[in-house]
Design brief:
This protein is 33% helix and 26% strand. The chain is an alpha+beta fold and 186 residues long. The strands form 2 sheets. Strands 1-2-3-4-5 form a 5-stranded antiparallel sheet, with helices on both faces. Strands 6-8-7 form a 3-stranded antiparallel sheet. The longest helix is centred in the middle third of the chain and has 16 residues. The protein binds coenzyme A.
């Protein structure tokens, strides 16, 4: 299944496209975002960082890898990408199966929680995934909070080097059983 377009009350999640490169380059090339991320992300961020990232992801999709790649767009906005969610259901990477970021001007309005809620519904109801793992630097309070608000259960720590110097990452598990149970009681 390809990455579907998903609408929430304030957002459109649509498939990542090469035309998103300028907006992603502008928003993602920000130390306040990158400092929370693993050192596998380049910093200083190269001028063609977004374009290379998008090409690499589209190539994976074209060659049949199971990758879901959304950009977040405000329904009330001009259509530009203001964030990204990636989901790799079958990845065995200790960092987990999902990544996300949002442009700094839009933080702390519940937007990523809203987007992840919709993505979880897609992952468990449409894809039928049983469970997956996610992670964040121990210092990343906002990312931890999004996980706590979207059904993730803390399962331990892994060693992982981050740009802010943090060497520990929290590991979380999100299960279909918990997610569907949560939805039916909310
Ligand atoms: C993580 C990120 C996507 C969150 O997006 P967001 O739309 O702001 O998230 P939400 O508004 O849905 O939730 C953020 C929560 O963190 C809380 N929070 C944020 N900073 C906080 C802080 N310094 N101390 C305590 N709580 C904090 C907010 O209050 C909110 O919780 P609440 O709803 O209980 O009040 C965004 O901060 C980001 O892009 N960060 C940089 C990249 C990143 O860290 N990506 C994840 C890597 S694992």
């Amino acid at each position: 299944m390809g990455t579907p377009t998903i609408q929430t009350s304030r957002l459109i999640l649509r498939p990542l496209a090469l035309s998103d490169a300028p907006a992603i380059q502008r928003h993602f090339n920000n130390w306040n975002i990158i400092r929370h991320l693993a050192t596998v992300v380049p910093w200083p961020y190269p001028d063609d960082g977004a374009e290379s990232f998008i090409k690499q992801q589209l190539e994976k999709i074209a060659t049949g890898e199971e990758v879901y790649q959304w950009v977040l767009v405000l329904r009330s906005g001009d259509g530009e990408a203001i964030g990204n969610i990636a989901f790799y259901p079958t990845a065995k990477d200790p960092k987990g199966n999902r990544g996300f970021w949002l442009a700094e001007p839009y933080w702390n309005r519940g937007l990523m929680t809203e987007a992840i809620t919709a993505v979880n519904d897609f992952v468990f109801c449409a894809l039928g995934v049983e469970s997956f793992y996610v992670g964040n630097a121990v210092s990343n309070v906002a990312s931890r909070r999004v996980k706590q608000k979207t059904g993730a259960e803390f399962v331990g720590y892994i060693e992982l080097s981050h740009h802010d110097g943090q060497t520990k990452s929290e590991r979380w598990k999100v299960t279909r059983e918990n997610w569907l149970g949560r939805s039916s009681t909310s």
